[in-house]
Specification:
Number of helices: 4
Strand content: 5-15%
Order of helices and strands: HEHEHEEEHE
Helix content: 10-25%
CATH topology of one domain: Ribosomal Protein L15, Chain: K, domain 2
CATH class of one domain: Alpha Beta
Number of strands: 6
Largest sheet: 3 strands, parallel
Distance between the termini: 100 Å
Shape: rod-shaped
Radius of gyration: 40 Å
Strand order of the largest sheet: 1-3-5
Structural class: alpha/beta
CATH architecture of one domain: Ribosomal Protein L15, Chain: K, domain 2
Length: 147
């Protein structure tokens, strides 16, 4: 190679110690199946078999959003003031146990919220329940106590 001439890409040579990957299945001295066995997907040229678990992972639906695994907040059971007027007498206590006894809620262990739909004329005493603003006003106007 002439030192004065500019170097070209075809002048470059690969280092001799670097060996390429052996390409089997193209004739030569490896016999009938070239070390790939007999038939099947793995014996074909360019066979790339994806992991079996990938199909299972792909079948799981993605949960979108930030902190998607956060526990869902339970909604309280709701009771309207008009329903209380029919079921309870004057100065009776209204709590989760009495509401479950009267059949206004399903589970006495769940949280309860009193909503302001309808009118109430009976004075009642409330314990262990939450209220909407309108229901609180209606109960106080009827002479009831909100704890």
């Amino acid at each position: 190679m002439n030192i004065g001439a500019s170097m070209q890409l075809h002048h470059l040579k690969k280092p001799e110690h670097i060996k390429g990957k052996k390409r089997i299945g193209r004739g030569g001295k490896r016999g009938r199946y070239c070390g790939k066995g007999d038939k099947g997907q793995r014996s074909r040229a360019g066979a790339k078999i994806r992991p079996q678990i990938r199909d299972w992972i792909k079948s799981i639906p993605k949960l979108r959003g930030y902190k998607f695994d956060a526990p869902k907040k339970e909604k309280p059971e709701t009771v309207n003031v008009k329903d209380l007027d029919y079921q309870f007498k004057k100065d009776e206590k209204v709590n989760p146990e009495t509401l479950a006894e009267k059949g206004l809620i399903e589970d006495k262990r769940s949280s309860i919220k009193i909503l302001g739909d309808g009118e109430i004329e009976t004075a009642l005493k409330f314990e262990d329940v939450s209220f909407s603003e309108s229901s609180k006003k209606k109960i106080k106007d009827a002479g009831g106590s909100v704890a």
